[in-house]
């Protein structure tokens, strides 16, 4: 790695800037909330978690970090996972590709918007990317005779762990399994068994929690994901987001920003046939299929392609003749510029208006002081979840279960999860919270002219809660009874505010 070590500090600097300038994203809520709630229980058993469970288990030591700072540290953890991905891929390629081509491939990865997205937000994209990169490195080493079974075992284990972090990793993992099956005559049955058994060991976090709470696990990981997107996007009049042409066009647009399209083009032009190329190509195909499966299309769904496409791109650059190599480098530079344009836009906006992350930390610290340990419900857990706040576990998923209806919401209630928007008043009357944080879900929709937060605001106003604006981002605390701030108690008059549309520059949305 010594000949291209500069990629790591450059990536660290870019990710640090990206973390600071990216606005709050409501996808972050369930991940930050799940980390905080690990102080009190387990995913599925004690609170809803709409993914496979490894990320909150791994990051559970962060559960005691105070509100606001937890969001920041969770973002930093993902940036570290991304740096680990760069390091693993660089080491895996050393000796397999020319240093200059490794440098080009890794630089193109760093300039890929889906990579920056997953590495800068408090989601669950960067940890499976790291685990897939480790699996690729181990499987490439297994192509050499020494320690083949050990390396296949490590690769299988890491693939299983990646699936236990995010289920979309199963599709590139299936490509690796197909490769091992095709090469069983060469590797031997013992190597195949070692790979499969190790993968099962990596799946154990998911298997154990699935056995502990089978109905909840099935609902959270499978039923919700299969039904909720179509229900939501149809209900808000945007069912076209789920149609094939729209999804493909969006994925191609995201793929044009960085390494993805240029890497696929280089691989298509490379005619060399070898075991390392076949392994990577099967996993790339799996990752590409996996990127299409979630509905609708968003940048993060392309992330499982990255750890396998980058080494394939480096190998392809090695094998392309002079005729193709110079145009390919030029196209790579254009792709890198496209991949960085959104980060540049965010940096300019943050320079002009301030960092929304810094504002969020400030607001979270004030909210935690006012809450003083009382229960908080919110559709924006990323703003309030932390070791010094008492987040109501029914609202661990933020808006995602709250906005469902029909059988999905009935199942959520049956498992003790979030009440939906249609029966929120009934459920809050039976168990009133100490505080309600609103402001992150004020965008109007056909079913929700005042936004998803609207029903919470109406309930709080009619029950005598006092409104405390937290800052310029539009977040408001509705507080029952006495308000504590800076160690002193006081009573505030009710503050009437117009509906917060929160299309402010500080808040961004990703997956609806």
CA(first)-CA(last) distance = 40 Å
**How many domains would you count in the coordinates?**
2
- Please, how many helices? 24
Question: Whole-number average pLDDT?
Answer: 88
Widest beta sheet: strand line-up:
3-2-4-6-5
Number of strands: 9
Helix content: 55-70%
Give the overall shape: globular
**Main sheet summary:** 5 strands, mixed
Low-confidence stretches: 486-510
Radius of gyration: 24 Å
What is the strand content? Answer: 5-15%
Structural class: mainly alpha
Describe this structure in words.
The chain is mostly helical and 512 residues long. It is 60% helix and 5% strand. Strands 3-2-4-6-5 form a 5-stranded mixed β-sheet, with helices on both faces. A two-stranded parallel ribbon has the order 1-9. Helix 5 runs antiparallel to helix 17 and helix 12 packs across helix 13 (214-235). The chain is globular, with a radius of gyration of 24 Å.
């Amino acid at each position: 790695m010594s000949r291209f070590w500069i990629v790591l500090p450059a990536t660290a600097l870019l990710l640090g800037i990206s973390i600071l300038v990216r606005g709050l994203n409501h996808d972050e809520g369930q991940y930050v909330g799940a980390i905080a709630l690990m102080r009190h229980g387990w995913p599925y058993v004690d609170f809803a978690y709409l993914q496979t469970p490894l990320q909150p288990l791994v990051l559970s030591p962060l559960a005691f970090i105070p509100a606001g700072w937890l969001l920041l540290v969770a973002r930093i953890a993902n940036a570290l996972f991304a740096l680990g991905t760069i390091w693993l891929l660089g080491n895996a390629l050393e000796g397999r590709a020319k240093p200059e081509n490794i440098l080009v491939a890794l630089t193109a990865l760093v300039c890929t918007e889906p990579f920056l997205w997953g590495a800068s937000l408090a989601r669950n994209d960067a940890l499976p990317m790291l685990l897939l990169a480790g699996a690729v490195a181990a499987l490439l080493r297994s192509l050499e005779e020494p320690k083949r079974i050990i390396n296949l075992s490590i690769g299988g284990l890491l693939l299983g762990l990646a699936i236990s972090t995010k289920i979309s990793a199963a599709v590139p993992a299936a490509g690796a399994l197909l490769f091992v099956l095709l090469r069983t005559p060469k590797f031997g049955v013992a190597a195949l068994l070692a790979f499969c058994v190790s993968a099962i060991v990596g799946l154990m976090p998911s298997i154990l929690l699935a056995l502990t709470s089978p109905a909840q696990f099935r609902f959270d990981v499978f039923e919700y994901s299969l039904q909720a997107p179509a229900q939501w996007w149809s209900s808000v009049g945007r069912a076209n987001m789920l149609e094939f042409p729209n999804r493909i066009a969006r994925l191609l647009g995201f793929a044009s920003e960085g390494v993805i399209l240029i890497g696929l083009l280089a691989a298509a032009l490379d005619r060399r046939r070898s075991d390392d190329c076949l392994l990577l190509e099967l996993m790339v195909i799996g990752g590409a299929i996996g990127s299409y499966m979630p509905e609708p299309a968003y940048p993060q769904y392309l992330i499982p392609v990255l750890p396998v496409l980058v080494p394939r791109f480096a190998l392809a650059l090695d094998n392309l003749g002079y005729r193709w190599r110079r145009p390919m480098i030029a196209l790579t530079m254009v792709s890198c510029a496209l991949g960085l344009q959104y980060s540049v836009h965010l940096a300019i906006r943050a320079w002009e208006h301030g960092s929304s992350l810094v504002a969020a930390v400030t607001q979270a610290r004030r909210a935690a002081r006012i809450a003083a340990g009382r229960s908080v419900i919110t559709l924006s857990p990323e703003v309030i979840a932390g070791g010094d706040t008492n987040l109501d576990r029914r609202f661990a998923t933020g808006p995602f279960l709250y906005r469902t209806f029909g059988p999905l919401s009935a199942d959520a209630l049956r498992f003790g999860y979030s009440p939906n928007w249609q029966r929120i008043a009934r459920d809050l009357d039976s168990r009133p919270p100490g505080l309600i944080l609103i402001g992150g879900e004020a965008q109007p929709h056909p079913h929700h002219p005042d936004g998803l937060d609207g029903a919470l605001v109406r309930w709080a106003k009619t029950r005598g809660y006092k409104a405390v604006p937290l800052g310029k981002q539009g977040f408001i605390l509705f507080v029952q009874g006495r308000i504590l701030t800076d160690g002193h108690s006081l009573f505030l008059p009710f503050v009437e505010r117009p509906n917060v549309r929160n299309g402010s520059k500080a808040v961004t949305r990703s997956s609806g």
